[in-house]
Amino acid sequence: MANFIAAKIPEGPLEKKWQNYKDQAKLVSPNNRKKLEVIVIGTGLSGASAAASLAEMGYQVKSFCFQDSPRRAHSVAAQGGVNAMKNYKNDGDSVQRMFFDTLKGGDFRAREANTYRLAQCSAALIDQAVAQGVPFAREYSGYLSNRSFGGVQVSRTFYARGQTGQQLLLGAYQALLRQQAKGKVKIFNRHEMLELVCENNTAKGIITRNLVSGKIERHAAHAVIIASGGFGKIYYLSTLAMGCNASAIWRAHKKGALMANPSWTQFHPTSLPQSGSYQSKLTLMSESLRNDGRIWVPKNKKDARNPNEIPESDRDYYLERKYPSYGNLAPRDIASRAAKEQIDNGFGVGELKNAVYLDFAKAIKDLGKTTIQKRYGNLFDMYEKITGINAFKEPMKISPSAHFSMGGLWVDYDLQTSIAGLFAIGEANFSDHGANRLGANSLLQACVDGYYILPYTLQNYLATQIDKPKPATHSQTFIDAEERVKTQLQTYLNTNGTKTPDEYHKELGKLLYDYCGLSRSRKGLTFVIKEIQRLREEFKTNLLVLGDTNQINSELEKAGRIADYFELAELMCLDALNREESCGTHFREEYQSDEGEAVRNDNDYAYTAAWEWTGNPSQPELHKEKLVFKNVSLSTRSYI
Amino acid sequence: MPMKLQLKIWRQKNSDDLGKFNTYELKDLNPAMSFLEMLDTLNLQLIKNKEEPVEFDHDCREGICGQCGVMINGIAHGEPKNITTCQLHLREFKDGDTIVIEPFRAKAFPVLKDLKVDRSAFDTLIASGGYIGVETGQAPEANTTPIPQEIAEQAFDAAACIGCGACVATCKNESAALFVGAKISHLASLPQGKAEREKRVLNMVNRMDELKFGHCTNTEACQVECPQDISVLHIAKLNYEYLRAKFKK
């Protein structure tokens, strides 16, 4: 019997909750702030914006990233844009509508209060970014420009060519380095968190490895913030960076932080298809391309003609056919699943028959090459750099790829995990997107968590820590944690088997793609859980990592991350197995309509599944957070 | 058609080691493979033979994070213009080619191991003034200050820098003028960046000298190798801003 957990949502009407919270939250006076230390793991949009904002307030901040510079964090790769409720287009946008779009986009599996707060805080973010010098696209008048994104009928997406994530991240990174120069932030690049240190279910600090010297270090603080991003890289082939990993999240989970909805992974419909077994990642092409690009496959499976020679009558624009009102701008989960359906049924195109066409011929004809060049020039360049194909002349070939983790560490309204003093922000938490995230909402959530929410909610916690000294790193808890880390690293080196971490990662990723990916079934999940267990046992005895711990050793870094993936993978499958309904990205084959659309079960599954680590990866304990909808009526999500 | 390549790769244990070239052979490579996937393939082969793999920096593998970057046959990020190392594919080489692979070399970028270098000097440069000093919560409504489209586009052209360091590695003087010029130009062209305009350029240029980056002598090699094709005109803008600030002072 599962336990129910509470999210500590403030009282009052939906639109007043966040204001009520802020009005009542505890404060720390400026002269006390400098006595309090905070650790932030990750320097992407959420981590950098939080670290900078907290340092500006006067806290002492330590900021960690595994990359060689904080500016490399994978937020940098987000292309299309960031949503915000400004209603500059006068096209009917409002906080209420943005809230509803996000909730509906997530198939009514997100918390009302969090989603509403996200929409409420969105406008201020654009102001902040512009003040930092983010060069958003503008009209000739000099005013900010907007475009439309999947799953909505207004234009609320702000963008900086196809490099919105990069530009927002540089704004946050520069703010972070400004605080470093002032001595308020200490940056630890090329460092990886390997253990969370807790006493009495309260976060006290972390153990890290310096990835250059190999030195294992202890860091104590009054609070720890995990901003380490998502774990879609568990599928091996994904749109994520090679170094993205679940280790900070997972090691916090093993210390008692609950993991929520871990199986909800978004598959991005417009990434480049796999071309061979050596492939290391699938490059994303921005969803914004779907504003003007039309997706199609040949009507005849065996049609081997060059796409330009296939006449209109022999093409199936399946999204426009199935979802006439949203067409090519159907939400990501629906567009991805529709592509998979075409590919699985043999209509795929390209050498490996694993892609669909994204065609700009009509847009080029209607709007002119110059306009398309201006809108998507750098994406077309990128496509050509990777594939050698000019998309002005022939359609792009795209396919779905693992992309975003809607699941993550369970957090309450304060973004605090089930461990006191441990907070999770950005993609690392589960909170705002439900079972499917709308395009351009991830940059938004990361920024809003870091700039506007955490500075209030963390302070509410830190106010209780003023009279407490910083935890001592020479305590037995820290010493034991350090020893555990050292022993574990040595174990990887001593195994001396025959298979590399990457080889295991590829095998695991393939299993997850096939059985816990775009669609799942009881039979497949039951089967794959056993396979994962088998492979995990083999990994323990047959891993091959060379070198030692006292130097740069990328293989050693990977080994730890993959060991964590093996445990997380099983939890993802158990989570998918537990949820006997289809919702958003989670498509259970047993629960679909005659037309093949997802069928939700609101009576039994309108809850967040939050899993507790019990010591045995095969037997996690389920806790439920009941989702209460007072401001919307649950409807079948329709984009027809 | 599967390809065969010979690789001459710089191997260096750590920053104190002298380092040397080792030669490796790879067969049956697919021309659609990326350059970094070729290094993955080599590493798998090395590990299976119980030899330590080649360390190299990389992360996003789509040309935007700026973490990858090596000298390929003496050219930063390889011969095709304006790409990152991760965007280079084997179809650019011929079957049987020998490829010489070295780390980016500059006094300000010490080698850490094999092909990995320390580029934190770039972070130090940004920390010396490469920002607009607005704190969270201070910003006015975004449309209060319209910015003409061409100015915003100009600012973007400069802001697109990914901080990979190819400009420094390519420059015979190891100058960071393009990197600093891009940031100065980005921020000085926007109304929001004007308040700190003089202070910013003076601090960043001084810091550039302290960090052992060389002077720019206008050979313009940097733009050729820059993955974002950042224009050398931003260096001209840097010089202008510097002189302007000096005179104003």
Q: Which tags fit this structure?
A:
heterodimer, A: about 650 residues, alpha/beta, FAD/NAD(P)-binding domain, Flavocytochrome C3, Chain A, domain 1, Methane Monooxygenase Hydroxylase, Chain G, domain 1, 3 domains, five-stranded mixed sheet, 17 helices, 20 strands, about 15% strand, B: about 250 residues, alpha+beta, Ubiquitin-like (UB roll), Fumarate Reductase Iron-sulfur Protein, Chain B, domain 2, 2 domains, two-stranded antiparallel ribbon, 8 helices, about 35% helix
What can you tell me about this protein's structure?
- The complex is a heterodimer of chains A (640) and B (249).
- Chain A has 640 residues and is of the alpha/beta class.
- Chain A has 3 domains: 3-264 and 406-462, 3-Layer(bba) Sandwich (FAD/NAD(P)-binding domain), CATH 3.50.50.60; 269-402, Succinate dehydrogenase/fumarate reductase flavoprotein, catalytic domain (Flavocytochrome C3, Chain A, domain 1); 476-605, Fumarate reductase/succinate dehydrogenase flavoprotein-like, C-terminal domain (Methane Monooxygenase Hydroxylase, Chain G, domain 1), CATH 1.20.58.100.
- In chain A, 36% of the residues lie in helices and 15% in strands.
- Chain A has a 5-stranded mixed sheet with strand order 1-20-19-11-17, covered by helices on one side. In chain A, strands 6-3-2-10-18 form a 5-stranded parallel sheet. A 5-stranded antiparallel sheet of chain A has the order 12-16-15-13-14.
- Chain A is globular and about 75 Å long.
- Chain B is built from 8 helices and 7 strands.
- In chain B, strands 2-1-5-3-4 form a 5-stranded mixed sheet. A two-stranded antiparallel ribbon of chain B has the order 6-7.
- Chain B is elongated.
- In chain B, helix 3 (149-159) runs antiparallel to helix 5 (177-189), helix 5 packs across helix 8 (233-248) and helix 6 crosses helix 8 (233-248).
- Chain B starts with a strand and ends with a helix.
- The mean pLDDT of chain B is 97.
- With 249 residues, chain B is α+β, with helices and mostly antiparallel strands.
- Chain B folds into 2 domains: 3-113, Roll (Ubiquitin-like (UB roll)), CATH 3.10.20.30; 119-248, Alpha-helical ferredoxin (Fumarate Reductase Iron-sulfur Protein, Chain B, domain 2).
- At the A-B interface, helix 3, helix 5, helix 6, helix 11 and helix 12 of A face helix 1, helix 2 and helix 3 of B.
